[in-house]
Amino acid sequence: MTPASPDAPTLPQPPKRADARRNYEKLLAAAREAFAEEGTDAKLDDIARRAGLGSGTLYRHFPTRQQLLEAVYVDEVEAMARAADELAALPPWEALSRWLREFVRFSTTKRALASEMLNQVDRDAAVFAFSRGAITRAGDGLLGRAQEAGVVRPDARFGEVGRLIAAIGAATSDEDEVERLLGLVLDGLRYRPAEG
């Protein structure tokens, strides 16, 4: 989905017609699956077939591989931001810890996309600036709420926490090890009043 923010990257606009919009969404979903299963060099024609559409439809929506990569990347970032909003109804600690668990998976999957995108754009490109801002706002909101509730240490900053979470995703893909490492980070975030 193309973000509405003025700082958002320039991506192909999702179509307004319902049938074209459905095709756009099918292509994004198929690309996300193909990139997860086959890597970012998945063939575009195979992605179109996976979506049940012709190659011409794919190229009308995404004239280049880079545009498709960026659209999938931004769509995943927006999904993480929406997840933070949806989890905000939970108690602060539960909302934060559940979102950070999702963030580990997100950081693992986005690494391959980002690496491929960096072949065409640099780290300061609008797509990355927008994504960093969206993730930081989502994480800051959940972390701040947990700090206000007194369940997270007041000196924690999302930038630091985010780097730790991303490092877990970079260190291992083993689910048990990810959970153990994340448990250590979460345990370090909890507020414990000084005993005295």
Overview of the structural elements:
The protein is mostly helical and 196 residues long. The protein has two domains: 12-63, Homeodomain-like (Arc Repressor Mutant, subunit A, Orthogonal Bundle), CATH 1.10.10; 66-189, Tetracycline Repressor, domain 2, CATH 1.10.357.10. It has eight helices and no strands. The protein has helices at 18-38, 44-50, 55-61, 65-87, 92-117, 126-148, 158-171, 175-189. 29% of the residues are buried.
What labels would you give this structure?
mainly alpha, Arc Repressor Mutant, subunit A, Tetracycline Repressor, domain 2, 2 domains, 8 helices, 0% strand, disordered N terminus, HTH_TetR, DNA-binding transcription factor activity
Oligomer: single chain
> What is the H level of CATH, i.e. the homologous superfamily of the largest domain?
Tetracycline Repressor, domain 2
Q: Structurally, how many domains make up the residues?
A: 2
**What is the level-2 CATH architecture name of the largest domain?**
Orthogonal Bundle
Which CATH top level class of the largest domain fits?
Mainly Alpha
Distance between the termini: 52 Å
CA radius of gyration? 18 Å
Number of helices: 8
How large a portion of the residues is in β-strands, by DSSP E? under 5%
**Shape estimate:** elongated
Helix content: 55-70%
Low-pLDDT ranges: 1-6
For the sheet with most strands, the description reads: none
Alpha-beta classification: mainly alpha
Overall pLDDT level: 87
InterPro entries: Homeodomain-like_sf (IPR009057), HTH-type_TetR-like_transc_reg (IPR050109), HTH_TetR (IPR001647), Tet_transcr_reg_TetR-rel_C_sf (IPR036271), TetR_SbtR-like_C (IPR049445)
Protein name: Transcriptional regulator TetR family
Domain HTH tetR-type: 21-80
Region (Disordered): 1-21
